[in-house]
Write a structure and sequence with these properties.
Chain lengths: 302, 452
């Protein structure tokens, strides 16, 4: 069952259409990627999910029930632009946000201690936010987002500003939160992390949904008859009527070849013709990266 | 409701803990008291700057002894000395300056001058002018050959100070002073202006801070925009009230201490008995006796002033002040909040600030006019119109305002501030999420009509 659903959401700002009949359905314990070029309408959708603004038309459901204002306690939101009071101390600030989410002071304190220790930021408790580096402030904000253990987490570009080590830490935390039962919607331009983390995605461009589904399905669908072939030793092959060679190179005494089939030929038949040339180590469909798909889809539309 | 109290608490605590708040809260009443007390002290104890002045007449003794010594100036009448001779040496001889009086003075009013290295104080000049004027008048009267002229002169010498008494509703006469009422009107009007403006602007700055640092997005994913706005406005109002209360306590404290130490149980007779010792302790025993007589009326005036100040309707003033502060502040603060939400940084606020500042400045100007003429119809209307009434009404109250006027003014105020808060909330809700777009009044008007 879908934990969160948005049905036929439309939102207009003045003359500008920000969302045009967009629907998403986020299964429980799924990491759901919200992709799209800048200005596509992702942030508007996220704001609507957070009930910061209301849709002009369309309906929102959490756990099968209509989304209510009181549901904010079940949602955690990390906005793209990090927002913390610069002059306020880290601990006090975290406590303040936790209380706004409805946690009692004592409970908030207990959980904050746990998270601050876990992310190794407990030493900054008494420091002012303006003294922290961008990455540090982001960790603090991450904690304030997840502290009330929401069922639905929304991360808008969660990795910008982090060094590779901290990116890894935060990625692991996101996976950990999913394991503990959270459902995550996250918006990003970083396609590698989409491949790594996301189960499902929706790609929005110019206010419309243009691609949606599970990451694996989408990649296979866009695979476009390309295959990666690895031979043992230095092997050269040439294209024929059934396939073209896109590139080939030899590395560490292995030949790596990418080929594209041109007719509806069965892969077994290709393999038979290839086996003659040498000892095949592997033969895989070459899945395009999300990055490629993203660029191809958007470019095709323009 | 619980969330709004969390917001109020944060807004309040972060501000009250600031050093600048603590310093201002303590310093302001001390400064205020100092402004009132220091001149009084100086007036009473001008002993440090004693001047000796040589008086020279051209071979005549027409004005000998006319200019009497005061507590800070001694006049030495020199004979057979030329101004030209003394000019070079008067400083060495210990003189502050030379007063030259020509015998022609009776007919030519400017045949007198004073030579000194420094600009002589106005009080000294007034003393000399007054003495000479009186003497010339006496000498001219002498020409009419009136018997017992000196006795008559002494007899007609009078000092006039008008005492004003206000009849209150129960028919009791109260000593009042227009001066006190004016001063109070000025202080109250100005204080109201400062408070509304300072704390209103704080609301605006707070909103801009939240908007530019994008904190607002996190917060309004937890609470409604109106909760955040009202939480901020109320939190800052409480800061203002806290400051105001502390000011009242400190001022009352300082005044009480003053009253018991400087003016013990201020009866006029007691003062004139107790004061000479203080004055005599200076270095001018010579002039002591004459000065006692001079000081008494001054002190009496001071004590009278004190009593008059106490006769002001303080309860009403404080209640009205708090009411007008809260409503006036809420009105302006909500406008300031709306402005803050519509801009991306503080410099952009200017185009919106002007139309908001105009009624406040106008109110302040009318309040100043009120001090001259509290009954004018301009003052009346401005004390009714909600945009100006907090400041103007406060300036009117020390002069006495009929109860019905206060009630109507307050009712109008409540209705208007409600409407303003409602409108501001609508603009605010849209404004805080708008970035990178220059906002115009037209745009804000559109936001006002957005629904949902």
């Amino acid at each position: 069952m879908a934990l969160f659903e948005a049905k036929n959401v439309t939102k207009q700002y003045g003359n500008q259409l920000a969302l045009d009949n967009v629907s998403i359905s986020v299964p429980e314990q799924c990491i759901y990627g919200l992709l799209g070029p800048n200005g596509a309408g992702k942030t508007t959708l996220i704001r609507i999910i957070n009930q910061i603004t209301g849709p002009d038309t369309g309906e929102l459901f959490l756990n099968g029930k209509k989304l209510l204002p009181s549901d904010v306690q079940f949602i955690g939101y990390l906005p793209e632009e990090r927002g913390l009071y610069k002059k306020m101390k880290v601990g006090e600030q975290a406590l303040y946000f936790a209380q706004l989410k409805g946690l009692s002071k004592a409970e908030a304190m207990k959980r904050l201690k746990y998270w601050f220790t876990k992310l190794d930021i407990i030493d900054w408790w008494g420091k002012k936010v303006e003294e922290l580096s961008k990455g540090m402030a982001q960790k603090v904000q991450f904690v304030t987002t997840v502290l009330h253990e929401p069922k639905l987490l929304i991360f808008d570009e969660p990795f910008t500003g982090f060094d590779p080590l901290n990116t890894k830490i935060v990625k692991n935390e996101i996976l950990f939160l999913r394991e503990r039962g959270a459902t995550i919607i996250f918006s990003t331009h970083n396609m590698e992390s989409v491949e790594e983390l996301c189960d499902n995605i929706t790609l929005i461009d110019k206010a419309k949904t243009i691609l949606e589904g599970s990451v694996n399905e989408i990649r296979s669908k866009w695979a476009a008859n390309e295959y990666d072939l690895v031979f043992d030793g230095d092997v050269k092959i040439e294209g024929n009527g059934h396939y073209n060679i896109l590139k080939q190179q030899t590395e560490n005494n292995k030949s790596i070849i990418r080929l594209k089939t041109t007719s509806n030929i069965n892969t077994n038949d290709i393999l038979q013709t290839l086996m003659i040339s040498g000892n095949i180590l592997s033969f895989n469909p070459a899945l395009p990266s999300m990055n490629e798909i993203f660029i191809r889809v958007i470019e095709a539309r323009n | 409701m619980n969330k709004i109290s969390v917001i109020i608490k944060r807004e309040y605590v972060t501000r009250v803990r600031k050093k600048s708040f603590i310093i201002m809260t303590i310093l302001a009443p001390v400064l205020m008291a100092a402004i009132i007390i220091v001149p009084t002290f100086i007036m009473m104890n001008q002993s440090g700057d004693f001047k000796k002045i040589a008086v020279i007449e051209d071979n005549s003794d027409l004005f000998k002894g006319v200019v009497k010594n005061t507590k800070d100036a001694e006049f030495v009448y020199l004979e057979n000395t030329k101004v030209e001779d003394l000019k070079k040496t008067f400083e060495k001889a210990g003189y502050y300056g030379i007063l030259y009086i020509s015998p022609e003075l009776v007919n030519t009013p400017n045949a007198v001058y004073i030579i000194s290295k420094k600009q002589p104080p106005i009080g000294l000049l007034q003393h000399i002018e007054g003495s000479l004027k009186k003497e010339i008048e006496r000498q001219k009267l002498l020409a009419y050959k009136i018997d017992n002229l000196d006795d008559i002169m002494k007899n007609i010498e009078t000092n006039v100070t008008i005492q004003t008494k206000k009849l209150d509703e129960s028919g009791v006469e109260k000593g009042t002073s227009t001066g006190i009422a004016m001063a109070l009107a000025y202080i109250l009007g100005f204080l109201m202006y400062m408070l509304v403006f300072i704390f209103g602007a704080q609301v605006m700055r707070g909103v801009i801070e939240e908007k530019t640092s994008r904190v607002v997005e996190v917060i309004i994913s937890s609470v409604k925009p109106i909760q955040l706005m009202m939480g901020k406005i109320i939190g800052i109002a409480l800061v203002g009230l806290t400051q105001f209360m502390i000011w009242i306590f400190l001022t009352v404290g300082i005044v009480t201490v003053l009253k018991t130490t400087i003016l013990p149980k201020s009866g006029i007779t007691e003062i004139s008995q107790s004061m000479p010792q203080n004055l005599m302790s200076g270095n001018q025993q010579v002039a002591g006796t004459t000065q006692t007589a001079q000081m008494s009326p001054q002190l009496a005036e001071f004590s009278q002033m004190f009593d008059n100040a106490m006769n002001q309707p303080w309860g009403l003033i404080i209640i009205c002040f708090i009411f007008y502060f809260i409503t006036g502040y809420l009105l302006y603060a909500s406008v300031f909040a709306a402005i803050g939400s519509a801009v991306d940084n503080e410099t952009e606020t200017q185009q919106f600030m002007l139309p908001v500042t105009i009624p406040i400045i106008l109110a302040l100007m009318v309040a100043m006019g009120t001090m001259q003429n509290p009954e004018s119809s301009l003052s009346f209307w401005c004390s009714m119109i909600p945009l100006t009434s907090p400041i103007v009404m406060m300036a009117r109250i020390p002069f006495g305002v009929p109860g019905w006027q206060i009630v109507i003014s307050m009712l109008l105020m409540v209705v208007t501030f409600g409407a303003f808060v409602w409108m501001a909330a609508k603009v605010y809700r849209t404004g805080i999420l708008m970035y990178g777009k220059k906002t115009s009044w037209k745009e804000m008007w559109k936001w006002l009509r957005y629904s949902g």
